[in-house]
Amino acid sequence: MPQRLHAEFVEAVGADAVASDPVALRSYECDGLTGFRVVPSLVLVPRTAEAVAAAVRVCAKHDVPFVARGAGSGLSGGALPVADGVVISLQRLRSVVEIDVVNRRAIVEPGVTNVDISRAAAPYGLYFAPDPSSQQVCTIGGNVAENSGGAHCLKYGFTVHHIHSAEVVLPDGSTTVLGGDSPQLGGYDLLGAFIGSEGTLGIATRITVKLLAKPAAVKTLVADFPSVEQAGDTVSAVIEAGIVPAAVEMMNALAIKAVEAAVDAGYSRDAAAALVVELDGPQAEVDAQFAQVKRLCEEFGATKLRIPASAEERALVWKGRKAAFAAVGRISPNYFVQDGVVPRTQLATALTRISELAAGAGLRVANVFHAGDGNLHPLVLYSEAAGEHERAETLSRAIAELCVDLGGSLSGEHGIGTDKVCSMPRQFSEDDLATMARLRLAYDPAGICNPGKLLPTPRLCGERPGVYQPHPLEAAGLIERM
Amino acid sequence: MAQEISFTPSTVEQVRAAVADTRASHPRLLVTGAGTASGWGAPAEPADAVIDTTSLTGVLKYAPSDLTIAVRAGTPFTTVQETLAEAGQRVVLDPARARRGATIGGLLATADAGPLRTAFGSLRDLVIGTTVVLGDGTVARSGGHVIKNVAGYDLAKLFHGSLGTLGVVAEVVLRSHPLPPAMCTVAVEAGAVEAFDLAGKVVMTGLEASALEWSGGRLLVKLEGTPEGVEQRERELCRLAGATARVLTAEEADAAWAGVAAIADGVQGTTVVRIGTMPAAGPVLVTRMVAAGAAVASSMAIGVHTVRFAGGDHDELLTQLHAEFGAAVTVLRRDGLSADRGWGPPPAPVRVLQAIKRQFDPAGRFGAGRFSPWLEDEERAS
């Protein structure tokens, strides 16, 4: 990076917030998707929202691409740096500014971890509902960027349902506020479109989140099944009975084995599938529906029901489930995490096809998924050392595209990022993608805000004729197309 | 100037054709549905052609086991509910305009909702996919048919509250919920301040009320769920609320909720506005409005207040509300306002609104005037 530009960044954020030595830069070269690595030119670690804005202004002035980064725990390469660009880390912006008990909301900085919001709210009987498995480390800024879900979003929805407003630094370095004090606000829902935009429309520097009252009662069961199909049918029966559980999670034999090896959470090592069903709400509602869920599990062939007797035991069940990704490291040297969604009624078909694809590739696939909403997390196990990388990558992509073919989506919660950007044309037409690009252009005409993510480009994914877009000067009648 | 004409497309392709074919001959378009929100926002300027969506109807795909339904956007909301009810489901939305035939697309474009907004939000929270037609004839889909989906930008959010200024919403995919087997409404006599405190207690006790609506000197609490659950929660609520709490009969409950809806509807000669505040600021505003002779329905727990002023000239009142609450004030009915009365101070990101308008509708074809004066500088420039 030219010395003069470097000096401008120093002036914007302070010398102690600029990292440029090669070792420091290397530690930002990837996020949770480690297969993609790019060393950035500069890393900025500003201490204030004003410094973030100042840094972005320098980027805008000189057309320097920037990538915002929270904990770097994302699984789609959404925080992958750009080689000639800067990374703006939000790690130092991590104060819980205010817990507003009366209005049940918290004002937090983007670097606050998901679980720390609930921790800060706990003394008041409140919590933040979205609970991605990475909640111990992932930040609220990242949750907003990815519209993170989690095990409990079946009943409670995603991050987009739990944010009141966000102060955002736009790609031109100006600051604005999206959303407001209540859901009633005139104009397009800019906040809703911003949440889940994967850091491509701006950087949230202060976020007002919704806090919920802790449910009066919670009941959880773990049911073992002789097959994943039977477990899947049980999920359908529960949903068709008109029950909306707080969470319905499933793990197959391989995933259970991994979890038990890592955490010892009490899952049956010999079960072909384990179903975790959690109900929460008013006591009498939970009691009535829990009895119904138990009956359905038995009816559909559950071989064992385990009902945690205490909050600690329940926490252990969840610890096991949420540790599943990392636990797979115990049974395989390397793995890819997939994140496709299918209509829930297609679960059985999807699982059968995935095992066929896996057999064809000669690889093992562990399955951990949010069964209630059809969000699959197939973990493709492989060995880098044995030269299986490419085969595993191909299988992983085939699984995601299978989900699209079954009427679903490439991603339920991890995002498109860098990972799936070239699969986007499988799910969306050129016109769909060109229309999405209009939203991006409205925010970032210069294309400097997390470029290369979310929308495919010919450079990334091969030449692909796009819809003709008139140059702004042409649209304004100042130039003509030759 | 071209002669005003009207199109009544019944498929996305016909919408596309109508929009694309009129680019030169009838550049300025007005999108209409059932017409139940024609007074919302600022008055639309005269257009060259009308895209009437009332024939753009029908269920495209209903998958009860997946809790999703895809419909054409001109389908009346009540038709969708009837279809869902046959399979024991519903869309958890109860806008007043539904009774007057409001369409799904219209409800999305106006960001409307009723008392159930307290627990379930608005269509922004329930739409999982859309197909829209832009002014150059582009047909674009976003989202899809699954509830959990983060692939691509969620364009439905942009069209939520867009008042027909970005394009035509042609198809919508919605999330459905099971119909609760039991429900009841408890009414508690309470002033606005007490009602706010009680609403807070109801939330904090984990009673999971579906609606907490203050209107006409009482807080209406809707409880939905299993028969056992509703009964238990009803008892707990009555204990919490004290002597003036009363479980309404089904007829009384219907009448009470119809009364709430009537405030949003308004009648000839009235002005109706919807105002958003911090929840805790609600009681003061509501008390003031009632003292000024207005009828109020307030979703106390989330700070959304619908206010109906009786006959008279309301320009001065609106000026005051605009000064105080800015872009959080939406006009729903404008009989007491001067004809050209538009929106108040714009929201902070007005430049982004303008940039989006410019990107999606660069020729300025759709809904001129509806956001006046927020988008006007841009409209003049283009």
From TrEMBL, chain A:
Cited PROSITE patterns: FAD_PCMH
GO terms of molecular function: FAD binding; oxidoreductase activity
Keyword terms of this UniProt record: FAD, Flavoprotein, Oxidoreductase
Pfam families per record: FAD-oxidase_C, FAD_binding_4
Protein name per UniProt: FAD-linked oxidase C-terminal domain-containing protein
Top-level taxon: Bacteria
Names of required cofactors: FAD
Domain FAD-binding PCMH-type: 36-214
Organism of origin: Amycolatopsis carbonis
TrEMBL record, chain B:
InterPro entries: FAD-bd_PCMH (IPR016166), FAD-bd_PCMH-like_sf (IPR036318), FAD-bd_PCMH_sub2 (IPR016169), FAD-linked_Oxase-like_C (IPR016164), Oxid_FAD_bind_N (IPR006094)
Entry keyword annotation includes ATP-binding: no
Keyword Electron transport: no
Entry keyword set: FAD, Flavoprotein
Domain named FAD-binding PCMH-type: residues: 1-179
One annotated GO molecular function: FAD binding
The protein's name in its UniProt record: FAD-binding protein
Lineage per the UniProt record: Bacteria, Bacillati, Actinomycetota, Actinomycetes, Pseudonocardiales
